[in-house]
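[Automated response] Your request has been received and processed.

Submitted sequence:
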Amino acid sequence: MEALVAQMAAMQLMMEQQAARAQAAEDAAAAASATAATAAAIATAAMAEQVAAANQAATVALQTAAAMQAANAAQTAAQVPRARSAIDTRLLGKPRDFSGTDAEFVDWSVVLRSYASLVNPSLGELMKTAETTEDIVEEVGLSSTEVEAS
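Generated structure:
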């Protein structure tokens, strides 16, 4: 974002330099003959149109950059902070994959629920709720914090 703002500032400086050159060309045309003055005036008018168009483009780009920066700031402020875990999962290790057998499911599910609860307590609560309800649990019915945890 800062690079875009810097680029816009550089473009604006370049446009100001072009405007100064256009003014210099206009001054030189006034000192020259009538024919040269007419040619310089046409060139100056064309250059002035280009400068005006570039100025307008730079203004729109600066406004867009400012709007994007404001949107990013608003999004950052609105983000829900993630629940932090006091457990270092690198030391704890991850639960093994479920093999698909009924005999292993009970032990595997206890390990997985415990792991999930340690890493994110709200995830453990969500799992407990999902286990005890008869209804289908859909993400639509969850709060933003619960969606983040899931």
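Summary generated for your ticket: Residues 2-78 form one domain. The chain is about 75% helix and 0% strand.
If you did not submit this request, please reply to this message.
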